[in-house]
């Protein structure tokens, strides 16, 4: 039985669905996942300041170019961790994605490549994107192709909700990583970065995510069934408690900023405990939504409900794999993940 999956992901919306399928496959198998993203090397087409950066500061150039890869992979890892699936991630700069995928699978010791078809149909020569077909032909490994064609509104809406959850989870994992590094090395964590994390965790759910859940998903589910009323009421109370938790964390960050050398270790330890407690609260909340509310919605909501929910959440599209209307949160998410990496 397969024990180690390589899952190549790209920057399309279909990657969200692919990651979900991969995690669903790996979990019952007891397998682990290596997520992989191939970044095209655009150096040959660079001009002006970008080319100067590549030549004079290659490390800074690589950090900038690979920033999107870190964002994509951090969210993929968050999806796997949420289901208890062991995972890691890799990226490489290459103008030949299929070749890079094959090399990554072999280097990681994977025994299965799980990748998307991107919904192509027709004859065999047109059935898969060229990279998928090349991996099938040349990898020397079993390749399982997940169909990710056109999705109905329900699937699109659920994918957006889950993707937004993964963004929040990725920020929490990054914050715990920053604090663990500071505690082990005796260093002061990056205060500006932690303030940016707080701003993201506070502003994005309050401005976009929670209002859409309550006004669209929760309200429409209540109209179709009363079976989830108690759970929905608890989730709404948790939305309020979320703000209280973040206020506690903000006080902790500012206390750390003001602490003298003698008190810093204890203040840092308390902040670490509070961040871990909030992470458990957040993951429990998202687990309730994904494990109880979304299945109930799939069972009870009508097509017209899903069309409205899909349209509402599609306006967010940030932070997600695609472009979105609200670029402020996308830029903030990028800053947090890349500075914490």
UniProtKB/TrEMBL annotation:
The segment(s) forming the Hemerythrin-like domain are 157-297
What organism does the UniProt record list as the source?
Roseateles saccharophilus (Pseudomonas saccharophila)
Per UniProt, residues of the UspA domain are 1-145
State the similarity comment. Answer: Belongs to the universal stress protein A family.
> Pfam families, from UniProt?
Hemerythrin (PF01814), Usp (PF00582)
Which InterPro entries does the record cross-reference, listed alphabetically?
A: Hemerythrin-like, Rossmann-like_a/b/a_fold, Universal_stress_UspA, UspA
Q: Protein name, please?
A: Nucleotide-binding universal stress UspA family protein
């Amino acid at each position: 039985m397969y024990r180690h999956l390589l899952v190549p992901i790209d920057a399309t919306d279909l990657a969200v669905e692919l990651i979900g399928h991969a995690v669903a496959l790996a979990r019952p198998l007891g397998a682990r996942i290596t997520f992989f993203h191939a970044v095209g090397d655009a150096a040959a087409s660079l001009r002006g300041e970008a080319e100067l950066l590549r030549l004079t500061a290659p490390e800074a150039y690589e950090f900038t170019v690979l920033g999107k890869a870190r964002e994509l992979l951090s969210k993929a890892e968050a999806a796997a961790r949420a289901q208890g699936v062991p995972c890691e991630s890799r990226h490489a700069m290459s103008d030949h994605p299929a070749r890079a995928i094959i090399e990554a699978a072999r280097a990681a010791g994977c025994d299965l490549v799980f990748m998307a078809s991107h919904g192509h149909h027709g004859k065999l020569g047109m059935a898969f994107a060229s990279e998928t077909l090349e991996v099938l032909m040349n990898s020397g490994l079993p390749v399982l192709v997940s169909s990710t064609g056109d999705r109905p509104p329900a699937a699109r809406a659920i994918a957006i909700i889950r993707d937004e959850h993964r963004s929040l989870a990725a920020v929490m994992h990054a914050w715990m990583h920053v604090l663990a590094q500071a505690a082990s090395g005796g260093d002061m964590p990056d205060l500006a970065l932690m303030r940016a994390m707080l701003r993201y965790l506070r502003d994005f759910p309050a401005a976009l995510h929670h209002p859409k859940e309550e006004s669209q998903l929760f309200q429409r589910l209540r109209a179709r069934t009363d079976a989830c009323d108690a759970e929905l009421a608890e989730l709404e109370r948790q939305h309020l408690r979320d703000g209280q938790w973040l206020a506690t964390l903000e006080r902790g960050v500012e206390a750390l900023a003001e602490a003298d050398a003698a008190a810093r270790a204890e203040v840092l330890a308390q902040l670490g405990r509070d961040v871990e407690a909030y992470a458990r609260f957040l993951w429990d909340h998202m687990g309730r939504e994904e494990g109880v509310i979304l299945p109930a919605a799939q069972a009870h909501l009508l097509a017209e409900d899903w069309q409205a929910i899909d349209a509402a959440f599609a306006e967010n599209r940030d932070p997600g794999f695609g472009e979105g209307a609200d670029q402020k949160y996308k830029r903030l998410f990028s800053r947090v993940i890349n500075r914490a990496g």
